[in-house]
Design brief:
Layout (H helix, E strand, L loop, with lengths): L1 H51 L18 H5 L17 H4 L43 E3 L18 H19 L4 H4 L4 E11 L5 E7 L3 H11 L8 E3 L2 E15 L2
Parallel strand pairs: 1-5
Antiparallel strand pairs: 2-3, 2-5, 4-5
């Protein structure tokens, strides 16, 4: 019994040793296989990149022509030209010297000293002794063409020329209707519609001047003059920011009642 037990234990030990060697060899082979596979994968990756990458042909740039010198030319002596010294031009002395002037050849003018102080006088200088400077003539234009029409009293708050024209015509009509005596036509035997043409100038001071009338009867002209002379003073018209004379035309119509 003892021999058989010994043989069984020996067999078990030998089997265990064989199994442990096999395991060690298997572990070594696994590491080797992994390394070989990794190297193979890298090689394949490099080959694939080389196949997909475009091939660039590099050409060296053309060099400019380089002058070549032979040994004979190199040993030949260089001829050096001597630099000539340029001498500055010396001007002639006669051109620099002033002309010779002999005495008593130049006439010296006879200067007379004038005293700048005015002579004493007992007369005083007055304003009337100065001559007045004439003023430029005042321009004359029409009510339609003037840049800024005269301003009738009551129209001062308006700014545009169009508004000032309309205001003046309205104020003028109100003034004439309020002051003109329309019964004068019946007193002088006039009939129907009568027209009176009135023209006057608003001068550079805003006053009415150069009054002219035209009517079918002298009594109507006289009445028109009487009314126009009662017009108030206005602000003068302006042209280029200067006061000007403005000619104004005002027709007047009224009907004589039977």
């Amino acid at each position: 019994m003892s021999n058989s037990q010994k043989s069984e234990s020996v067999a078990r030990q030998s089997a265990d040793r064989t199994t442990s060697k096999h395991d060690v060899n298997l572990r070594k082979n696994t590491v080797v296989y992994f390394q070989v596979g990794l190297i193979t994968a890298l090689i394949l990756a490099i080959v694939v990149l080389e196949l997909k990458s475009p091939v660039t042909h590099y050409e060296s740039p053309a060099l400019p022509d380089v002058a070549t010198v032979s040994i004979d030319d190199w040993n030949r002596e260089i001829r050096r030209e001597e630099v000539k010294e340029v001498k500055p031009e010396v001007p002639e002395v006669s051109k620099l010297l002033p002309p010779v002037v002999k005495p008593n050849e130049v006439e010296i003018p006879d200067f007379k000293f004038v005293d700048p102080t005015p002579p004493a006088s007992d007369e005083t200088i007055s304003i009337t002794s100065f001559e007045p400077v004439p003023e430029p003539p005042v321009e004359t234009t029409t009510f339609v063409a003037v840049e800024r029409v005269p301003v009738f009293p009551g129209c001062e708050g308006l700014n545009s020329n169009k508004e000032l024209k309309a205001c003046m015509q309205e104020k003028m009509n109100q003034f004439i209707n309020r002051n003109f005596d329309t019964g004068i036509g019946a007193r002088y035997g006039l009939q129907g519609v009568n027209k009176v043409d009135i023209q006057f100038t608003i001068d550079e001071f805003g006053k009415v001047t150069d009054l002219k009338t035209r009517a079918p009867h002298p009594a109507l002209e006289k009445e028109a003059v009487r009314v126009m002379e009662k017009l108030p003073q206005m602000e003068p018209g302006k042209q280029r920011d200067r006061n000007v004379r403005v000619i104004y035309f005002q027709p007047l119509k009224f009907k004589v009642q039977d």
